[in-house]
Fold each of these.
Amino acid sequence: MPTTMPSMPLPINSYPPSCVPAGPRSSEQGPDHMPRPPSPLSSSRRLGRNAEIARLGVKVGTNYATTAAKKLFASAQRKEALDHSRELKNATEIADRLGNMKGALMKLGQMASYLDHGLPEPLRLALAELQNNAPPMSGDLARRVIEEEFGAPVSQLFVEWDDIPIASASIGQVHRAIIADPTTSEHRAVAVKVQYPGVAEAIAADLKNADLLGAILAFGFKAFEPEEMVAEIRERLSEELDYTREAKNQQEFADFYTGHPFVNVPRVHPHLSSARVITSDLVTGSSWAELMQQPQDVRDRAAEAIFRYVFRSLYRFRAFNGDPHPGNYIFHLDDPKSIRITFLDYGLVKHFSEEEMTVFKNMISAAAINHDGAAFRRIIEDAGLLKPDAPVTTDQIGDYFSQFYAPVRESHVMHWTPEYSSSIVRHTFDRTSPIANYASVPRAFVFIQRINLGLYALLGELRANGNYRRIAEELWPMVNAAPSTPLGQAEAAWLASRD
């Protein structure tokens, strides 16, 4: 399991998992009869966004100042109550304003809602609403985007179309439709993801407000210095805006996992996909919230399946789907003794070179298999993770990194908890660590750390149990151990059928 030094995982770009039939269909209108609706992110709206950003910063700052004044002569108990009241006010302000904005700010709010249970509870709960409740654009506007992309009205492209979206997210929303499959002529239910008009400009405007981005982030991670994270967001979001790239990524994963016993990736329909639209098979099933209501043994299998998907993709496919988020999973729970998961959203995928993979494997061998601190230090210095000759001891380096490798360093049943996952996040951003002064994060490692922290958060929320060292040994190519669980046996049979 690769890991690295402190770096903030990037925000998400996903849509909620439970794709259910949409509401009543609106009347079918051709493009000649549709009024051209204004973009929800037009220039006037962008000016309004900047005003919203400014008001949000002022409001949060005012709440802090007011509370500080009230605390001057308050008792300890009263100070605690005032702090809680301030957190609630700021949580409401941030969640309400982000929920009505498309782009980078909302993505930050979504990221914070699931990453760390160490956030103030009122803020975490308020931001959690952003995961699945982004305000949608109108059905007419979604139709207009599709017409502009394909040069034909929705009524000609689809057998049926639902104007009411089944899911919405930070840069696009999803509509249910029926198509005539071009290869078989059979009718097929599809999910059509449509990008919000003007979202690219909105994100660019958001990223100019780096100070506010940092202030919002610091609301949960008070010791974190956000400059590098903001720069990374600016670069990566441009990739997520290209739906052509996302469709290619998704189809690559779908091809790789064809026939897999517990991993499913929806097939893309390229003739109805473009730079701003992705059409793929519609998948229905249970959401993360519904999974959380299942018995612990079901959640344990789900956790193991997600873990295997993440690291099987890395070691066999040399790629990461960089959005470990509850809204990106659909769970198929028909068999009480097994599980199957559909993995969604491939806007942020990182492919690694053989050289980068060699570094990752060498780190694991030194830290988790051989427990060789001196070798581990040499590896991370050569990789650019730690400055050569940094005035820290090899034991200090080992103590710091052992937190990340703890789940797979020894063969034992690991009991994940939200508190444990939260402690790893806080450890990552501990600027008082002697390691932090001499660490850097090479480009290849930013995605690794984002996946690790996001995955830890998910396993913690599931309260997963399992011998993750033995599971990891099946996935590590330098070990390639025999299957240790029923899911491992099923996957081994699938791998054998491919070789």
Note: Residues 349-498 form one domain.
Amino acid sequence: MARVLISMPEEFLNRIDQVADVENRSRSELIREALRTYIYKQKIRESTSAARNADILDAMLE
């Protein structure tokens, strides 16, 4: 697995560590899940936007 170095505010890292501790997970595991969720939601937004644009185009062509 590739390794990535990121910078973030100390408070943000502390919050990540708190959540990871409560959920008995590693910091890396928690961040990977957050990124998977973000990417999934972004794909939904893109497909919803594309569908909306197609509907608008259809309405304009009618």
Note: Residues 27-61 form the longest helix (35 residues).
Amino acid sequence: MLFVLPLKDIVAAKIAITLYNDCEILHLCKETKLYLSPEEDWKVIIKKKLPDDVYPLSLQEKIMSLMKPISYEVEMWKEQHETFNGYQVDQRITSKFHWKTDGTIDRLKTASSLIQSDVLPMKQRFRLACNYWQEESVLSIWEQMSAGLRDDFCYIEMDDYLESDFFSNINVIEWIRWHTQIGNSNMREKKWFLAYNWDSVSLQGLLPQKLTPDERLEIINRTFEWNSDDHSCRFCLLLMPADQRLEVIKKNPFKVLKSFLFWPGQRMFIEMAHLVKNDLEDYQFFDLLHIIIHQKILHNWDDFDYFELIREFWSLIPNKCKEFFEGCNMLKPIELIVANSRLKEPDLKKYLLRVQQRENNASEIAMNFGKRFFLPHLHGDTYRH
């Protein structure tokens, strides 16, 4: 399963990545995360960097539409690698990023680049190599370590790893036990890979490529069971042969569909939805539509036609499931979007914002009532009208 993008999208993604790494844009991203911001002020800055005589208007629009997905991709990488490089990631690290043509980070190549550079301290390069299963780098860095640094790692190893600060240390411990023959490493035993910590980092390392299809299926099933990270769930499907994929999709319909709401997976969302529409619970249809409206449309994500996505998705929801939406604030906006004739998209966004504001006001009233009623009781007072 590959995301084959039109040439225009590939060109736009390459330019958008270059723009994202521009000093002015990076400074802006320190102040606000583009993917979370409904504000469009940043577009003025980018527009100045895309002269009309060089970039056709349609290409400009596509480039700008990809800035939020790229921002999201970078922030997810930072969050999932915080244990190795801290959250304050500077340009020395982002300059090592390797990007795929679809506008997503090639995590394995990026890890290799960081491991082989001097951007990170040796201790963190070693931990990163252990988690990405870069065997040659693990052994090479271990040989370069000072005796004191090796002792630090062995001290971690001698502790119960479940008490370690980070789950990623589990993988470091397994490597050290195997290499030093200290402790009882199970790396040569049957199903030893199940002791490995499988997360958004290790899943995209070299080890999954070395496992058999059945072994990969076992770790993928565990990942879907324990991990709700969209990036990991979608990547798991890419690891699988086609004959195993359908079973996993139907067993985890909501997580799969949710993961395909992010670039560049939206093109396959409806295809996936057709496969699992009879496996979803009523509330899961609601949750998916809520994500599209509140996280995408209201935050001005333009990387996909989310209005058309709602229309197509709504058309395949079984009628009995649509009854779940009766009396819900979200039903009217959905009906307006599906009708496609009553309001223009800017007006629909205004309507959705009003609905969201009413929901926020209702939540605030309920919260204030709770404080007014329950807090006096907690302090031994009696609530009086």
Note: The two ends are 63 Å apart (CA to CA).
